[in-house]
Amino acid sequence: MLSFLSRVLGILCVAVALVTAVIDGTKSIAASQLVTTPFGAHWYEFAPESLNAAQAAVQRHVAVWLWDPVIQWILLLPTWGVAGALGALFVWMGTRRRRRNYGVA
């Protein structure tokens, strides 16, 4: 059951990556230069309260230094890259491992 949920979440993340790549591609063609939308901009556009809550939670409960160099760097990456990487990770985690028989009958 958990592997199924992981695969579904991974496929949804890959779908988000494809949609945002098409949107960025369309903007790039219209502007005649490379245009990418950062992950943080999309997060802030859809749920600014949760972005602020995540920053406060990480700085209070995990580590202050984690937000500034690490998570801010992730928030500046293109959305299609972050969603694609997360999708690939979730799909990989949801795949079933095959047992090897090694010739035992």
Could you explain how this protein is built, in words?
The mean pLDDT is 92. This protein has two domains: 1-37 and 79-93; 38-77, no CATH class. It has helices at 2-31, 39-46, 48-62, 64-75, 79-94. It is an all-alpha fold and 105 residues long. The two termini are 29 Å apart.
What does the radius of gyration come to? 18 Å
Percent range of helical residues = over 70%
Structural shape: extended
* Helix and strand composition category: mainly alpha
How is the main sheet built? none
Labels describing this entry:
mainly alpha; about 75% helix; 2 domains; about 100 residues; extended; single chain
Secondary structure: elements and pairs:
Layout (H helix, E strand, L loop, with lengths): L1 H30 L7 H8 L1 H15 L1 H12 L3 H16 L11
Helix pairs in contact: 1-5, 2-3, 3-4
Summary of the model, kept short:
The protein is an all-alpha fold. The chain is built from five helices and no strands.
